[in-house]
Amino acid sequence: MTDIAVIGGGIAGLTAAIYAVRAGKQVTVIEKDCLGGQIIYSPMVENYPGIPRMSGEIFAEHLQEQAEELGASIEYGEVVEIEKEEDHFVIRYEEEIRSKAVILALGAAHRKLGLEGEEDLTGCGVSYCAVCDGAFYEGMDVAIVGGGNTALQDALFLSNTCSSVTVIHRRNEFRGDDRLVKQLEKRHNVHYLMSHLVSGLNQTDGEFSGITVRNLQTGKEEQLPVKGLFVAVGQSPQTKAFAALAQTDKAGYLVAGENCESSTPGIFIAGDCRTKEIRQLTTAAADGAVAALAACSYIG
Ligand code: NAP
User: Fold this and answer.
1) Catalytic residue numbers?
2) Superfamily of domain 2-109+235-299, CATH level 4
């Protein structure tokens, strides 16, 4: 039996592991995909206190090393069920472990546009990760949809190698930081379609051949023959499998206050999957620390 099982090895989960092992607890982190979570796709992290600039991937690597060196055990697998049994929890993935407390640090996944053909064209014209797929579009015209920091950062990243980048945003002002908007304005190969939506993914002979955009002010549609569309319209939580274990809100986020305690004693919620206003690296790390210390005092 381990003391604390941390489900999810993103920033919140790995920070929780660091705090809990340093408090003398046995910790197992279970990650279904890549350690580090969404931040590994960020080309540059510039807003983590004490670290002026670092790629998201390197940041995640450091965190993993730190957690493992301190004694956290990391396993890979997709947790499909967590069951309460007397004074502990049974966590089922490809294996099964028992744990006195559980920290759910499940993060969130890329939100989709919900357009026809989106799934089939993913990886063949439609991408959710500029850092991963940008190189395939070198010298080509691409579009990116979204107005948050991810879209702005990705547009900057793509404008380094693509012939042109068209940023499509549904409102007339960006949600992301002004600093990024100002950097983008200096790029001559970046164009904007504000107050526009992507209304269709075009295909010719079953292959991606561009997008249709709709002007939300005039209702007029036009086709853009771009070679790739990058979707950066935010994220949604992956909490469905755990909805019976802890209360969720309408959007699916697990309900917990700043103390990270869920509606079930012994289950703690950390990071982007928790109901909260601000989802940032710093707030994910803060949640990890709070959830770990709360779990330690629950165990006693
Ligand atoms: P976000 O801030 O939630 O922005 C999502 C954007 O997509 C918004 O502009 C939204 O429009 C738009 N959108 C949502 N659904 C849409 C739809 N169906 N069709 C068209 N547009 C749609 O998401 P994010 O940019 O991924 O950022 C997530 C969090 O990570 C934020 O807190 C962000 O600051 C943070 N982040 C930080 C860094 C960093 O360097 N530190 C980098 C990336 C992200 P509206 O504006 O109209 O709602």
Assistant:
1) 129, 132-133
2) FAD/NAD(P)-binding domain (3.50.50.60)
